[in-house]
TrEMBL record:
Superkingdom of origin: Eukaryota
SUPFAM superfamilies referenced in this protein's UniProt entry, alphabetically: Cupredoxins
InterPro entries, sorted: Cupredoxin
Protein name: HEPHL-like protein
Source organism of the structure: Mya arenaria
C-alpha cells in the first residue's frame, strides 16, 4: 500500500477469517482482527485467503468462475477511487492452480477457450473518489469547479454525515459510465479471430444494472443461450461466445440510461478460415424462411374499451391527446409486392411495436432492404435450454 489514503482489499468467493476480510465496519472486533480494515500510507499487510473445496467451482460450473475484489475501508469511496479488480477460481483440471488475480488484465491460460476478456461495467462517481480534490485541480479554473463540487463528508457506518448538494450538472459530469475505466468507446477493441471461442468475464460493483451484449453474437451463460449478460451490484459472470462474421461489432450496455451515456466498447473480429457451421455461407444448409415485413404507420388505440369512469388521463379533450397515438408497426405480407397481408391468428397478433437489424442499414421510406439472419449450431438452444428461445426484433436506427 503506497497511496496517500487508508485503503484495504476485500475479496469475494474465497475463505478468510476476520484478519483477511479487508472490510471496515462495526463488527465488535479489535486488535489484530481490525488490522486488515485500513492500511495506512506506506504500510503493508499480508491478507491470507484460502480456496477450499467449498469455494471451488461445482461439477455444473464452468472451468473457471470469476469473482471481484475491491477496497472496503470505505467501499463507496474506494471503488470510486479505482480500487477494484477480478480474480478467477478454476477447476484443477483446467489449470495448474486454483486462483489467479488479474487486475484488468487477461488470464490467458485456459485451455477450453481461445480468448479471455474482462468487461468491468460500472459507474465511477468521481465526486466520491478519495482523489477528487486533486482531480479538481485539473479544472480550467479550479476555484470555479471547487465551488460547483458536490462535497461529501466522512462516512460512518456507511452513512454520510454531511452532504453539500453543490451543482447537480457538475456532479453528473463527474459520473463516468465506463467499461474497464473507459468511456465513450475508448476501451481498446477486444480482438478476436473468426471462429475463436471467447469468454467475457462481466462484472459490476456499484448500484446499477448493466445489460451487456455484443451485437451479432449470442452468448452462453451458466450453459444457457442468451444475448444479454445482466450484472447487478457485486455480480460476476462468464459469458461465452464464438467470434462470428469478421467485422467491427458493438459491445454495449442496453440499459437505456446507459445507452444515452454511450457506455460501449467494440469487438473486432478478424478474418480467418473457419469450419462451415460457423461461417455465414456454411450456415445456409438449413431451411430458409422468408418473411416480407413492411413498416407501416397506423393509429393505435391504447385503450379501445375505455370508459369515462376508468381513466382520467386517457380521455381525449382540449388539453389531452387521449388514448390514440400515431405509431409504426411491422406488418407481414405474402411476397415482395407487399399487397396481400398475412392473416395472423389471435395468438400471433400481439401488437408489435418492436423491430430488428443486424447490419445497421437505414431503410428509407418506400425502399426495401433484404436482411439475412442465420441460425447456426452455435446460436441454438443448449442442452439445458427449453426447446425454444424467445427473442425480440425492433428498429434500431434511433433507440
Ligand atoms: Cu449499464
Amino acid at each position: 500500500m503506497a497511496s496517500k489514503g487508508n485503503f484495504s482489499i476485500h475479496p469475494h468467493g474465497v475463505f478468510y477469517d476476520k484478519r483477511g476480510e479487508g472490510a471496515r465496519y462495526e463488527d465488535g472486533t479489535s486488535g489484530a482482527d481490525k488490522a486488515d480494515d485500513a492500511i495506512r500510507p506506506g504500510g503493508s499487510y499480508l491478507y491470507i485467503w484460502n480456496v477450499t473445496k467449498r469455494h471451488a467451482p461445482t461439477a455444473d460450473d464452468d472451468a473457471c468462475v470469476p469473482w471481484g475484489y475491491h477496497g472496503h475501508t470505505n467501499p463507496t469511496r474506494d471503488i470510486a477511487s479505482g480500487l477494484a479488480g477480478i480474480g478467477l477460481i478454476c477447476k484443477k483440471e483446467s489449470n495448474h492452480f486454483l486462483m489467479h488475480v488479474i487486475p484488468f488484465a487477461v488470464h490467458g491460460k485456459r485451455k477450453d477457450v481461445d480468448k479471455e476478456f474482462v468487461v468491468y461495467a460500472d459507474i465511477a462517481d468521481e465526486n466520491k473518489s478519495f482523489f477528487f480534490e486533486e482531480s479538481i485541480q485539473k479544472c480550467g479554473q479550479p476555484d470555479v469547479c471547487q465551488a460547483r463540487a458536490v462535497h461529501i463528508g466522512i462516512v460512518v457506518r456507511f452513512s454520510v454525515i454531511y452532504y453539500d448538494a453543490g451543482d447537480e450538472d457538475f456532479g453528473i459530469s463527474n459520473e463516468m459510465h465506463h467499461i474497464n475505466g473507459y468511456v465513450y468507446g475508448n476501451q481498446p477493441p477486444f480482438k478476436m479471430s473468426h471462429g475463436d471461442r471467447a469468454v467475457f468475464y462481466v462484472i459490476s460493483l456499484n448500484l446499477a444494472s448493466h445489460i451487456m451484449r455484443i451485437i451479432g453474437h449470442t452468448m452462453s451463460i451458466k450453459h444457457k443461450r442468451t444475448e444479454n449478460a445482466l450484472v447487478n451490484s457485486a455480480s460476476f459472470l462468464s459469458a461465452y461466445t464464438v467470434a462470428c462474421h469478421p467485422c467491427h461489432w458493438l459491445l454495449n450496455c442496453r440499459n437505456l440510461d446507459h445507452v444515452v451515456e454511450d457506455m460501449l466498447a467494440f469487438v473486432d473480429v478478424s478474418n480467418k478460415p473457419v469450419p462451415s457451421e460457423i461461417a455465414g455461407p456454411g450456415r445456409r444448409h438449413g431451411r430458409i424462411r422468408k418473411y416480407y415485413l413492411a413498416i407501416e404507420e397506423i393509429i393505435w388505440d391504447y385503450a379501445p374499451g375505455l370508459s369515462p369512469d376508468n381513466s382520467v388521463f386517457l380521455q381525449q379533450g382540449s388539453n389531452r391527446i387521449g388514448s390514440k397515438y400515431k405509431k409504426a408497426v411491422y406488418k407481414l405480407y405474402t411476397d415482395t409486392a407487399f399487397t396481400t397481408p398475412v392473416t395472423r391468428g389471435d395468438k400471433e397478433n400481439h401488437s408489435s411495436f418492436t423491430a430488428t437489424t443486424s447490419s445497421g442499414a437505414n431503410v428509407a421510406p418506400g425502399a426495401t432492404y433484404r436482411y439475412q439472419f442465420f441460425v447456426s449450431s452455435i446460436d441454438a438452444p443448449t442442452k439445458i435450454d427449453s426447446s425454444c428461445i424467445t427473442y425480440i426484433y425492433r428498429s434500431a436506427v434511433d433507440l
